[in-house]
Amino acid sequence: MTPIDWLLKDAPLATRREITPKLGFLLTVLLAIVWLIPFLWMGVATLRPASEGINLMAELMPSLKPTLDNVRDAWEIGDFPRYALNTTIICTGILLVQFFTITLAGFAFARLDFAGKSLIFYLFLMQLMLVPVLLIVPNLRIIAQFGLYDTLAGVMMPFFASAFGTFLMRQAFEAIPTELEDAALIDGAGLFQRIRHIYVPLSMPSFSAFAIISVTSHWNDFLWPLMVINSPDKRPLTVGLSVFTATAEGTQAWGTIAAGTLMVIAPLLITFLIFQKRFISSFVTSGIK
Amino acid sequence: MSLAEPAALPVATSAAPRLHVLKRFVGRFKASLPAYLLLLPSLVFLALFTYGAMGRVIIDALYQRATPKAPVRFVGFDNIAAVLADPAFTGAVVNNLIYAVGTAIPSIGLALLFALALARTSAVSSALRAALFLPVLIPMVAASALFLFIFLPNVGLLDYYIGRLLPVLPNWLGDSDIALYAIMVITIWKNAGYYMLFFLAGLQSVPEDVMEAAHLDGAGPYQRLRHIILPELQPTFLFVTVIAILNAVTQVDHVFVMTKGGPSNATNLVLFYIYQQAVEHYDIGKASAATLLTLAALMGLTALSFRTMANREGGR
């Protein structure tokens, strides 16, 4: 069996002799390789000693004398541990508050009947329509009025309410059979107890899907923290990396830039490779974000 | 509720109509109170950073201060007129349109190719899907750092490997005729894998038996694509197009890192213009006016996307 036959072993018999799908597949394989080249270069350049000179910098064949000097330099020059800490604080802070707000609001929409429900529903929907990235200028002014300019809390605050998360939780809660809640009602469980002990534990897949989307998008946020943060020691990874790149670019220290980039994206890439299926299904639901 | 008790109503209303309405209103409000309390935390933040911000944009767009310390004065539509008359803004809009079309079409086309080629799940196709999806995960700033070297003149990755085939080595990011296209390459690289996911999901709804029947009738791959797969994917196409256009406006971090809008404004995009007005020129009035214009354009588009989604939901 040739490799092509093996790949097509599940294809309907009638299509196995067609040439176009095979060409399409071949093209996709070639493009996937091209897609990986920037990552490949990043890895190779990180390990290449600076002594090999600028002319060999683009070589994709790994150096025969690999070194960790670039990683050490980036670690020392870039203050990456501090940036990583700031990004972690931002992502965790946002996510924890979001869990609180979206659980409560999601429950209200899923299970309670109240006056003005559709009006409030549209008020939430508005957040999806007013693309938050575009509101950087007014939001910066509001943050400054609160005295939160140049603070991590200021970076986090505009994201504390999430219409996307609320709708996701509403959907999850609606799928839970009401019989379970009725049983708890008979036992005298209050509203918060029912949410805490019935709805939340049964909606873990939705929470994890939301966590993946929330953390990756705020991990990658650049423009908003760039505007809010002024002090170097409060920079998140993305802002830190851009400043670091601008500095190292001046000295043509491309190996160090590659090492710095690697440090910034490694946590996300590793988590993705472990939880690949979850990531992919979460990203499919994120289309409406 | 109202239909269940029509007999009792006339008596009550004739006695004290206002009071009754008020009582019912209070009763309804009391019954709704738990829900309002649950919604309150979200509504507070939405009020501040969505509606509050929206109101702020409108007000700021109507006022202007001559110097950062001077008092604000009402200028009506002057800011909007000034933005529309600013060649930097109109240039940014034109660039952004080119950028939107030039990134949306190739990335959607590639996404469709990837999805068609990798629709059948196997170890190989999952690995390829993961490879194509990797750029989606990384920050745009990290992608920019990598592509800064890829596009570096003479010694960069692109020139090192394929530059030798060209008679003259182009300065990818330094030439104002090329820079915008170089920026577009990064966006296509970063987003094609994301859009692929939606096509993969869409392909699942292509009915297997119709495909079988088409095979038996002797329909070739092109005919099956044209007459079965593409019509089935139409909602996905609309949906992904809207996301791609939204991304073309909002996802422009690489402009900040790589070109700062240059050379000579060739890569200046709308969001970068807004940032420049607010942060570099301290001109909140112009920044807000530009924000307002962009929001108006995008809200129309998002409204369209919700209609698209509603149609898709309804179609199933």
Write the layout of secondary structure elements.
The complex is a heterodimer of chains A (289) and B (316).
Chain A: H1 3-7, H2 20-47, H3 69-78, H4 80-111, H5 117-129, H6 136-145, H7 152-156, H8 163-174, H9 178-186, H10 191-202, H11 204-220, H12 223-228, H13 237-250, H14 254-274, H15 276-285
Helix pairs in contact in A: 2-14, 3-14, 4-8, 4-11, 4-13, 11-15, 13-14
Chain B: H1 9-15, H2 17-62, E1 63-64, E2 73-74, H3 78-85, H4 87-117, H5 123-137, H6 140-150, H7 157-161, H8 179-203, H9 208-216, H10 221-250, H11 253-259, H12 270-280, H13 284-315
Antiparallel strand pairs in B: 1-2
* Secondary-structure element string of chain A: HHHHHHHHHHHHHHH
CATH class of the largest domain in chain A equals Mainly Alpha
Name given to the CATH homologous superfamily of the largest domain in chain B: MetI-like
Q: What is the helical fraction of chain B, as a range of percent? A: over 70%
**What structural class results from the helix and strand content of chain A?**
mainly alpha
Our measurement of the CA-to-CA distance between the termini of chain A, rounded to an integer number of angstroms, reads: 45 Å
What does this structure look like?
The complex is a heterodimer of chains A (289) and B (316). Chain A is mainly alpha-helical and 289 residues long. Chain A has helices spanning 3-7, 20-47, 69-78, 80-111, 117-129, 136-145, 152-156, 163-174, 178-186, 191-202, 204-220, 223-228, 237-250, 254-274, 276-285. Chain A has two domains: 3-67; 78-285, MetI-like fold (Orthogonal Bundle), CATH 1.10.3720.10. The mean pLDDT of chain A is 88. Chain A contains 15 helices and no strands. Chain B has 316 residues and is mainly alpha-helical. Chain B has a two-stranded antiparallel sheet with strand order 1-2. In chain B, strand 1 and strand 2 (73-74) form a beta hairpin. In chain B, helix 3 crosses helix 13 (284-315), helix 4 (87-117) packs across helix 8 and helix 10 runs antiparallel to helix 13. The model of chain B is unreliable at 1-14 (pLDDT under 50). Chains A and B meet through helix 2, helix 4, helix 5, helix 6 and helix 11 of A and helix 2, helix 4, helix 5, helix 6 and helix 7 of B.
